[in-house]
Structure formats: C-alpha cells, structure tokens
Amino acid sequence: MPGAGIRQHAGARLRRSALYSATALFCAVLAVPAQAQEATAAEEEVAQLDQIIVTGTRVRGRVPTESISPIDVFYPTTLERQSSPEFTDQLANIAPSFNTQRFPIADGTAFIRPASLRNLPPDQTLVLINGKRRHRSALVNLQVEPFGTVNQGAQAVDFGLIPAAAIQRVEVLRDGSSAQYGSDAIAGVINIILNDYSSGLKIDGQYGSTYEGDGDKYRASLSWGTPLTSDGFFNLTAEYFNNDFTSRGHPRADAAVVGNIVGRDRVPFNGLGQRWGDPNAEGIRLFFNSEIGVSDSVRAYAFGSYADQDFDSSFFYRTPVGVPGIRPRGTLMVDSDGDGQPDPVDQALVNAIIARGLNPADYLTPSATSPSGWVALNPIHTRFPGGYTPTFGAEIEDFETVLGIRGESAGGLRWDLSGRLGENRVAYLLRDSINPSLGRLSPTEFRPGTLTQRERGVNLDFAYALENSVFAAPLNIAFGAEWRSETYIIGQGDPASYESGPTALLFGVGSDGFQGDGPESAGRFSQNSWATYLDLETDPTDRLTVGLAGRVEESAAFDTHFDWKVSARFQASETFALRGTVNTGFRAPTPGQANTLDVTTTADASGTLVPLGTFPVSHPASVALGSRPLEVEESFAYSAGIVYAPSRDFTVTLDYYNIDVDDRIALASFNIEPGSPEQQRLIDAGVPGAELLGFVSFFTNAFDTTVEGVDLVANYRADFGEYGWAIFDARHSYNKQKVRRFDPGTIDEERVFDLENQLPRNRSVLTFDYRSPWNVDLLVRANRYSGWQDFTFGERASFGSKWLFDLAATWHIRDRFHLTVGGQNIFDTYPDRETNGVLNFLGLSYPLSSPFGFNGGEWYVRLSVDVW
Known about the structure:
Elements: H1 4-31, H2 41-46, E1 71-74, H3 76-80, H4 87-92, E2 98-100, E3 115-117, E4 125-129, E5 132-133, E6 167-173, H5 178-181, E7 188-194, E8 200-210, E9 217-227, E10 232-243, H6 253-262, E11 280-293, E12 298-314, H7 347-355, E13 365-366, E14 374-375, E15 391-408, E16 414-431, E17 445-466, E18 475-491, H8 495-498, H9 504-507, E19 514-515, E20 523-538, E21 544-555, E22 561-571, E23 576-587, H10 591-595, E24 598-603, E25 609-614, H11 620-624, E26 633-647, E27 650-671, H12 677-684, E28 695-719, E29 725-742, H13 749-757, E30 762-771, E31 776-785, E32 788-792, E33 795-799, E34 802-813, E35 817-824, H14 837-841, E36 858-866
Parallel strand pairs: 4-7, 25-28
Antiparallel strand pairs: 1-6, 2-3, 4-5, 6-7, 8-9, 8-36, 9-10, 10-11, 11-12, 12-15, 13-14, 15-16, 16-17, 17-18, 18-20, 19-24, 20-21, 21-22, 22-23, 23-26, 24-25, 26-27, 27-28, 28-29, 29-30, 30-31, 31-34, 32-33, 34-35, 35-36
C-alpha cells in the first residue's frame, strides 16, 4: 500500500512518544489523590448565558449579553459530540461564521487545514490560549487554483493540534481587535480557555467510520485534575487519535486505460491512479494548565502543549511508458513530437555524462536509430509498469510553554507578567517517487526538508478600576506592553531530493511531486516587534457603556503602526440594547511569507503536471517578474447590532459588520510557457532551472476587499418540568465579499471570482439539545449551506444548497459511564457533482470547494468514564 513505509516509521515514533507520555501520566496519577469533579458539563451549559467572558474586554464580570462586541461561547460537550476528532471540524460544525474546507493533493494544506472567520484568510484571525497569543504553524499555504482561494498564501495557527477534551470553553469574538491584541485580529479573536478543575479523572474513547466503510476514526483521551497545595490546581489532558483515509474519486481516464492493459493491480490505488479524500493521520496531543497561589494577592501560572502527529496522502498520478494511446510522464520519457517514441538525445549530452565518469546506461536508453545511440527514455521506467503516484507525508511536532505571574496591589492595580515560547516543526516525507535526473540510480524515498516556526513573546499588562464621581461606573484603565519575535527556519532536504543529475534538462530535477529544499533554499529568517496599548472602558450613565482603545506597534521589518477602536453599548430598556464598534486593524507579513522558496507540482489547464516554483520577493525570479517589498495589510471596520434578552433563558443578538482590507497579500502566479517573455526574463536573471518551470509564484500586496455580513444568534433554554429541559440554539451568518481593486498582472479573474463566490453567502446552524430526567440525552443539529460557485481552468460551475443533519443520543449509566451513539450527516448528503472537464479527467467526482467536504455520512460510538 502506498505510504506504508511512512506510516510504519511514523507509527514507531508515535508509539514511543505515547509510551513515554502514558508512563509519566500514570505515575503522576498514582502519586496524587483526587476527588470528584466540581461541576458537570451539563451544568456549565446551563450557565452559558451567565458565563463571565474574558475576551474583548478587560473589565471584570462581563457576560456575553453585556459585551460591547458580539461574542459566542461554546462548550466541550457540544464540540465532542461529533464524529470528527479535529477541533477545526468541531468548531466549524457549530459556528456558521467559521469555515473550513478539505484539500486533498495540496501539499501540507492537506494535513494542516486552514480555517477562516467571516470569509477572511485564516491568518487574519488572532488565536489565543488562556488569553495569550498562540504561535503559528510552519506551513505557508502555497497552493494555487483550484486548491484554495480564501486560504491561499496564509500562515496561521493549526487548530488541529488542540483536543476538545482539554477545553473548558471557547470564546469567539466576532469583531476586529488589533487595537486591543495586535497583529492578525482583523476578522476577530478566538480565545480557547483550558480546563482548570482541580480534581477528577475522565477517560474517553471513540470509534467511528463513514457509510462507505472507509475513514475509520479512533480517539482516546484522558483528562485529569489534581490540587496543587491548598490553593492551586494542575490539569492535564492527553489524547491519541488514528484516522484512516477516505476515497471519493473515480479512476482517472488515463489510469483506467492503463489498468485495462497492464492490470488494475499495477496501477496505484487499485486502478484509481490517485486518491481524492482525507489523509491517513495518527498522533498524540497533550495540554496542561496549572496555577498556584504564591501569596494572598499573587498567583503563578503555567500552561502549555505538546503534539506529535503524522500524515500521509496521495499526489497526482504519473503515467507509465509503453501503453498505447497514453502519453507517458515526462519524467520517464520525452516525446516532444507526440509520435509515441522517445526523442533522440544530443551527442553533447552523452559526452557530458561520460566526461563526469558516469555510465549513460544509468540515465538513458540505447537505441540503434538515434545518431548518438541513445534516446530520452529514463531506464527507471521499468520499475513502474503501471505508472507511479508519489505518497506525500509530514511529521508534525509542536510545543508551547507559557509561564506567568499575576496579582493585585492593595490599591486595586491588577498586573500580569508572562513569557511564552512556541514552536511548530513540519518535516516532509515523500515515497513512491523518483528524482528523474538520477535515472535508475534514483531512490524512491525522500526527505524533502523541514519547516520550523518559532515564536517568543513577553507581555506586561496592567488594569485598574478608577473610582470616580463623574461616571456611573468606575473607569477601567488597562495598559501594557508586548515584545514578540518570530523566526522561520527552512531546513535542507536530503541531497537526492534536490540534486540536479546529468539529465535534469530532459526529465526534470529533484524529487518528483515535491522538490527538496537545497542549500539555496535553506535559511533562518527572524522578525521582531514591540507594542504598547491603552484600553479604556466605563459606563458614563446607567444605560451607556463606552470603550476606547489604541495600540502602537513597531516592527524591525515594517513601519510603526497605530490602530484604534471605539465601542459603545446603549441599554434602551431592561430587555433591549444597541451596540456598535469602529476600528482599524493590521496584519504584518510573516517571515515565512517573505522568505519561502518551494518547488512543487500542479496541474495546468490541460491537466498536464508542471513544476510550480514559489520564490521569496527578493529572489531574482520574483524580481524579474516585477515583485515589490511586502507591506502590512490594513483594515477599517465597523459593526452595529442589537441585543434582546427578555429573560435569563432567552437571548437574541443581531449584528451587521463591514470590513475593508487594503493591500491584501496573495500569491502572484505567472504561467511560464516555453519561449515566452516571462521565461526569457527568468533565464536572463540567471534563475537555475528556468527552462523547467511551468509556473512561478511570489507573495505581493495584490488586492483590496470589502467583506460585509450579518450574524444572528438566538438561544433559548426551555424547562419541561418533570420531562427535563432543552436548549434551542439558532445561528445564521450572511457574508458577502467584494474585490474592490486588484492588479491584473498578479491575480486573475478566476481568483477574483472565487474570492467573491466560492464560500456560501448564507449558512445556518440549528441545534436542539435535550436533557431528559431518564438519564438519556438527545442532540439534533441541522446545518444548511446555501449554494456557491467556483471558477477553475476556465470553467464556471454552480453548486446547490444543502442541508446536513446530525443526531446523537447519550445514555448516562450510574453517573459514571456515558455512552453516546451518533451520526453526522445522517442522510448521507453529498455536494453536487464536479462538472469541470479537467478535474473530471483527474478523477475528481465532487468539488474541492465544498464547504462540508465530500465524505458523506458518518457514524460513531463514544464511551466516557468519570473514574473519580
């Protein structure tokens, strides 16, 4: 099976990591006694409307309905009652303003899935853990059409590293907040609050699969809390998961022909050629959260995480030599005139091979009809009678540690000093591929390189409630400073993955599918920034709340930036309030975006596989095609909304928002035709391998957009007396994006069309969560996605709206055992069929742009045990 070698190697490493983690955890559990958990998850959800929030305000005691900005609160019982073990999917399934897609055959994007808030790029949403900035993934999304539009070029946080079992609640601030939190908070802020209970041990196990019988998912987690002295806690969550692949494509047209002639068993993936579906995945995730009292007014805290995950997926199919009617992959044979015969090789190339002390028979095939005696037929082709499909994999290691101390002076001044260190490392693997320039001497397994994102930060925050006789409430004054450092490291791949052999100009260079990073690509790139802020909030009258925030941020790579935010909320009556905000925001380009150098493979408009080179903006290839230094993205946004809360059990909020973003960063992509002016410019600039490149990309500030929309949230808790109680939750998001300006020389009409149409404009989530007095709970959820369109390879396609339904029943057995049987997309709904001719030829049955994927229905069984 393709990828087996990757899985075996990764599995051994994961088993060692899991063993070490489990041993340490078991010893800790034995060493410290614990008591029953203090509150059940159900009680937490009952109290949702009264939950004190900590995001978007630095005033103590605010609840969601009192917030100046719109904010959602989600709990783990809602996240965990789903078939997916990924937090990315879990949140997207319940928050209509949060979207994610699945992109197979998309390099690292197939594993590290980007997610967007309010139809803006993933890195325009700031992610916090316990109120502290979370580090980014090392992945920079480099895929061009059709493998991502909203996410293209983004470098964001990997939500897939966060287990739901470690979460106490999630606060989603749907409002720009750069003035309060700094870079990236253009679309909003997602703050993940970790478990803080000081006693209890809970064990979860879950298994599920798709209706098609593939995509088996295993997940097991353990959450444990224990006191630290008499005034503190330590909480640890450990999770293991193992997901099998899914496949929803059909045989490629060329793979089907090859299979009929040489046998399906000789064609990768049993005749499909390539696989469209979820990757294999296995990993462990650990999170801890702790706090202890140092004195009556000072507390020390620490939290952090570690993850070790492995993935592998399929690339595009490469056709073999010798099958009538099928043109072989150019890495195996060069047939420039299309006569079905390999081209003769120039004698100069043969002489050059011999001059290097090499044997031409290792790189070429002898022929009596060629004047040189050799033809452009790679002798390694005999090892792939049915063609080959590279298996692409990644080993992802991630850790973060945050240490801090906070307290309050006798005069009421609150302070918080913290430092953080986080790192994300992605090591790529490639199997079942070749370096065609090495001929029969090429290995078939490669390590193309390693990407590392390392971040450090120090924060010092103060808050003081100034009593006064002018306002109806104290003036809350918050101020502070922050230092941040980002370092992006490109690690060199193994030599065979980037080596240019003697036949590079004939067959190509480097590991086919994903070329390794050579010495010219490797490097370390850093960027530091400093910031100060002031945040004021008070109630001038009993009915009016106002807020004002300003932040100055200076970077070593970019100019000093100032952002501001003005907010207000007016309580018109006991049940009705108005609220609104106006703010500016920004996002600084990352070192990864400015310095990435990558060569991979993509398909052109005819379905032919061609090399795609992505270069730093300062690289000669980029400069030759008109690159300019990157600038920060800037935003101006405003929102206005109403809050209706006639009782503690019923609330309705409706908010309109409008976000202008200027100088958005995108990948400019140029088609490099043989003999074109673009190719000649690359050759004149001395770009190595310019003759082989099919596309060239680099980052640039390419366009301006406006996103506007409406979010509706209604929540009602119904008490049925002796028949239990239920929560009715209705959420709707309308979102429309408009490209106001773009540079036709950098992005094309297809990209503009997709930005405006690829995500559904309307999305609704309706949830009925019933808790009965008979120890049986029932959850019913409906997700509606309106229709959407995409523009790929010159063809526009429209896809209709869909309803998806989820169902879960939970039995509580003796208050300790909780058995859940559930289904997601229980009516097995798929998106409309893909109609694009090129994508159909490549075996794709359903659109990559589908906002809910194309796996169909899934079922799962989950058992949770409260040990003590």
